[in-house]
Amino acid sequence: MKNVQASSVLTPVVQQVKNNSTSWVGHRHGETKDRITGQTFICPTEGLLGCIEILSNHVTNKGNIELTIHEFDPEGKIWGPVMANSTVEFTADTTGKWVAFPLSGLPLHKGKVYAFRLKSDDALIGIGEAASSAHNKTDINGQEWIAVSGNTQGKYFSYLSLAFKVEMRA
Q1: Given a cut of 90, is residue 160 above it in pLDDT?
Q2: CATH for the stretch 11-169
Q3: Cystine design at 148: which of 33, 34, 79, 124 (Cβ 3.0–4.6 Å)?
Q4: What number of other Cβ atoms are within 10 A of residue 116's Cβ?
């Protein structure tokens, strides 16, 4: 029997790197609810998740951002339970940079739909996103999700997509 080990090299398997707009995460001064954002995607291959990267456009208030990953039912728009989470501190130094949320070893399966959420109760961060139009949707076949704390239903947009990279070990 041959022992096959997963590669130690991370490879982006799903990515959307266009950046012409900003989606906000966290607490805006004067508002009573926190802004939460997320993204759905279809996994194109089998493998172990290494990390999810997002593009930090602005750091208005430094602090921690938590990313959670879930299985996702796109027809019913139902988020499964949290499969894994990662928290990263954002500071002025992260502005304009790709920031990795380590999620080592979580198995993802080809053809399944997953989603990740980003939230914070102490930061206000602008996340890079691609804004297109209803007639010219993004090319990742996923949807951006935007909500506020206390309203976990939120809204889904096919013509918006966070700037992100899902990196796996195949």
Answers
A1: yes
A2: 2.60.120
A3: 33
A4: 26
